[in-house]
Each structure stands twice: as C-alpha cells, then as structure tokens.
Amino acid sequence: MYGSLSPALLVGASSLATGLAATLLFCIFSYQRYEEISRLSAEIDAVLHEGRPLIISDYREGDVAVLRNEVGKVCARLSKTAEDLAAEKRALANALADISHQIRTPLTAAELMVPVIERSSDARERAKKLRELESLIDRVSWLVTSLLKIARIDAGAIKLTSQVTSAADVVRAAVEPLAVAFDLNDVTCEIRVAPETRFAGDAAWTAESLSNVLKNCMEHTPAGGTVRVEASEDAVACRFCISDSGPGIAQADLPHIFERFYRGSAGTESDDAGTAADYETVMRPKGFGIGLSLAQALVNAQGGSIRATNAAHGGARFDIVFPKLTV
C-alpha cells in the first residue's frame, strides 16, 4: 500500500539508532566516571580532614583508575612525610629536654657552690672550691661545644680531609687535652702505639673522636684505675682500641650507649636530682651523655666503625676501625 521503505530512510533510521545507542552509552559511561571521581573526591576529603588512609581497592583499568593510583601514591607520601615530621618534632622535644638536663645539672651545682665559697674563711677550702667551680664551668663549655659540633655534623657543615699521618700523633692529640683531668681523677692513661703505625684520614677530627671515648672511659674508671689506648695497622685497616679498668658496661646499656643523650640504666636521674648535685656526681656522671654519640658520628663520617664491648678481663672496650681505601 505504502510501498517499501527507501534505502536512504533505512540508513537514516539505522544511523539514528546507532547515535542514540552511542549517546546512551556515553551518558552511562560519563555517569559512572562521574560517580568514580565523586567517590575519589570524597575519599581524598576524608584523607585530608579525617586522617584516614586512602584505600586502593579498585583494580580496574582506565583513566580514573590510573588517577586513583597516582593520588594514592601522593597521599601515602604525604602521610609518610607527616609521620616523619611528627617523629622529628618528638625527637626535638626530647633533645631539648635532654640538653636542658645536661646543662642544668652542672649549672645548679655551680650555683650551690658560690655561697659556700663566699662563706668559707679557709683559704685552702676556698681555692679547692674555686677549682671545682672552674671544672664545672669547663664541663658546661664542653657540653655546649659538643652540641654545636653534633649540629654541624648533622648539617653536613664539617669538611673532612684524608691524609696519611702517624697514628701515635693522632693518639697524643687525643690524650693531651685530658691530661689534667686524668691527674685530677687519679686515673692513669697508657699509650701503646708503634711509631711506624700509620693512619689515613682526618687526623684532627679523629683525635676529637678518640678524645671523647677516652673522656668517657676516664669518667667511668675508679681512682687508681687505668685507661689504655692502642693502635695497630694491617693491610686492611688502621685500628684503635681504648679500654679501661672500670666496672664495664651493663648489658642493658650496650645496644644504646652511642645514642645521643643516653644516660644509662644506672645513670637515670629524676628531674630534681640537679638540686642536690655535688662535684663528684657532676664531674663523674653515670650516663654516657653526648660524647660517644659525637665520637660515632665523626668515625662514621670517615667510613669507619666503632663498637663497644666488655673486655674479657673486665672493663669497657671500644674498637675503632678505619678501613683502607686501597689494599
């Protein structure tokens, strides 16, 4: 009656149907993508404002999945950075508290000593107390100087050189600043270094590290005791060994003695201990403070290693090894 539909009309109808189907699929796809982006936006908002981790549970392919993975990486990195900053903040707070304790104790002792000196009518007693006061001031100066050196090492501001020199000269440079302290503490320092022993590294800073270890050993050695310094060289490394005749290091302290401001299991004190601090307590502390931490930092900066043990015959032993660059 109407005749058959023309081919052109059929093609047009087919094209229209195809277009409608494509449009419908595009709308569905766009809606799904919009929903995915909305969910991702909500999760990012939760990460930023609620501290939740971004959970990547969608493993499908596609642009949104790629975006989700990249955002997840960024969020994970930001979370790690936030954790590191929080840890640094806690470490800084602890460090400030430790610095305060380290400096406050000798300052409090010095403050208590001043009125004693003022009231004393005995010239000898006054002279003795003045020497003790001078020693307390020297200790505070040493603490501040050590803290500044550690800060310079942490900041990479110390320039180390490497030169071949006599190990005996390095040891002598480490011992000389402590000669008076050894006499005052009635501790003998023995040096056993062969003249031909050579050391390759920064002599000045190595002497500084050895001096800090020597000081620690001296402070933990009873009157009449001995601190021994030895150096040897072979084809592989130059080795320094410092040992003392003290009571040794408690097993609980061995893993921690190079930690900054570590006081030791026998050296923990209450925050009010400084008010009753006397000369012996301050000048021969039970803890390990910052000296060993500084020594380790200086040794490690030169590619060396330092290890603490208890000697078989008793007392503490520190082995410091500087490998040779060429064998």
Give the name of the CATH superfamily of the largest domain: Histidine kinase-like ATPase, C-terminal domain
Order of helices and strands: HHHEHHEEHEEHHEE
Q: Largest sheet, described in full?
A: 5 strands, mixed
Structural class: alpha+beta
Q: Which percent band covers the strand fraction?
A: 5-15%
Query: Helix segment count?
Result: 8
Number of domains: 2
Q: What distance lies between the first and last C-alpha atoms, to the nearest angstrom?
A: 107 Å
Mean pLDDT: 80
Low-confidence runs of at least 5 consecutive residues? 267-279
Widest beta sheet: strand line-up: 2-4-5-7-6
Approximately how much helix is present in the residues? 55-70%
Sequence-ordered SSE layout with sheet pairings:
Blueprint: H1 7-50, H2 63-119, H3 123-154, E1 163-166, H4 167-175, H5 179-184, E2 188-193, E3 198-201, H6 203-219, E4 226-233, E5 237-244, H7 279-283, H8 291-301, E6 305-310, E7 316-323
Helix pairs in contact: 1-2, 2-3, 3-8, 4-6, 6-8
Could you walk me through the main structural features you see in this protein, from its secondary elements to its overall organization?
Residues 75-102 form a coiled coil. Its EC number is 2.7.13.3. One of its GO terms (cellular component) is plasma membrane. Its main location: membrane. Helix content is 55%, strand content 13%. It is α+β, with helices and mostly antiparallel strands and 327 residues long. The chain folds into 2 domains: 8-82, no CATH class; 85-323, 2-Layer Sandwich (Heat Shock Protein 90), CATH 3.30.565.10. Helix 1 runs parallel beside helix 2 (63-119).
